[in-house]
Amino acid sequence: MFDPLCGWCYGAAALTRALSERLGPMVTLKLWPGTLFPEPVAVDAGMRAHIIEADQRIHELTGAEFGAAYTARMRSKAKPVTLWSVPLIAALAAVPPKGQLKFLEALQHAHYVEGRDLADMAAIMQLAAAAGLEARAFAATMQNPAHAQATNAWISQARELMARAGVAGFPGYVLEKGGRLTRLDHGAAYADPQSLVDRIQALGR
């Protein structure tokens, strides 16, 4: 479970990538989107301070780098910052499942390293084009009311899965086997992804 604008999910990007690469055909990695920001949120001074403090903790624990452009944007009192998860989830829903993790990483890099404004649809379109998606088809999908409904359904399914598995925040890792859900503690795996790989392999036997 993830949110594109969750700093801890960005910090877990290397872990998620390791799970995808090392587990191979044994496990199918599926992304389930939560919504930290279901509506546009204007980041005020208090929220900026909270985010900056959290980013420091994330960096210390995971080694994830927060770019100078992003940090300057978050610290600037002159430039408004709006956070909104839903358009980014809709963009991910427009990508074939096999390409979603790579596109999520591109969105995270654009936000947390390049400091780009992902509340701006033009920025999302540019990232989609850079990812090799056909611009007209992607734009048509994003504007289709049926796609908005599918995105909301994906979010609702993720919330239901979180409730069933007992996942309270992001990121969350859950193993599904034979209809049974097992919530995976990933705290130690930030620094040692192989430890979680080994646990999943053991549970999957």
List keywords for this structure.
205 residues, mainly alpha, Glutaredoxin, two-stranded antiparallel ribbon, 10 helices
Shape: globular
> CATH superfamily name?
Glutaredoxin
How large a portion of the residues is in β-strands, by DSSP E?
Answer: 5-15%
CATH second-level architecture: 3-Layer(aba) Sandwich
* Helix-strand category: mainly alpha
Written account of the structure:
- The protein is mainly alpha-helical and 205 residues long.
- The protein has a single domain (7-204), classed as Glutaredoxin (3-Layer(aba) Sandwich), CATH 3.40.30.
- 58% of the residues lie in helices and 7% in strands.
- The protein contains ten helices and four strands.
- The protein has helices spanning 7-11, 13-23, 45-62, 68-75, 86-93, 97-112, 121-130, 135-143, 145-165, 193-204; strands spanning 41-42, 82-83, 173-177, 180-184.
- The chain has a two-stranded antiparallel ribbon.
- Helix 2 (13-23) packs across helix 10 (193-204) and helix 5 packs across helix 9.
- The protein is globular, with a radius of gyration of 17 Å.
- The relative contact order is 0.18.
- The mean pLDDT is 94.
